[in-house]
Structure of SRPBCC family protein:
Amino acid sequence: MTTPEETKVVSATRDIAAPAAQIFELIADPSRQPAWDGNHNIAHADAGQRVQAIGDVFRMTLHNGNVRDNLVVEFEEGRRIAWCPSSEGQPPAGHLWRWALEPEGEGNTRVIHTYDWSQLTDENRMERARSTTPDMLSASLEKLAAAVEST
């Protein structure tokens, strides 16, 4: 049961010294996400799933062996991408991962990473949703920054 004060939308923001297009390529290519996943959740995603549009579905395998289908529900090339995960072959469970990129001058981008579980109804996922903190999202941002700022 959720308490009234429970936050169901968590986010983290970081300025990254890289162009938005370069950062977006890492986010929009699921096969590259396991390398910078700060939630320690994604084990593997096959190559060739680069997101192109709303309605795309990409698949990831989690560290626990479960497979997630991810339905893209927001997409603006170089600026925004969001997806709703589900168990393999099932409808989305009601939570969403979003990345928003805001260019901040030449070669710099503000990146906002959000996890929204306000529509989550699957009781089996509530504990994991509650345990997702802004610090975990910040860890992904730190790893993402390290990946693009070192190139």
Notes: The first helix runs from residue 20 to 28. DSSP finds three helices and seven strands in the chain.
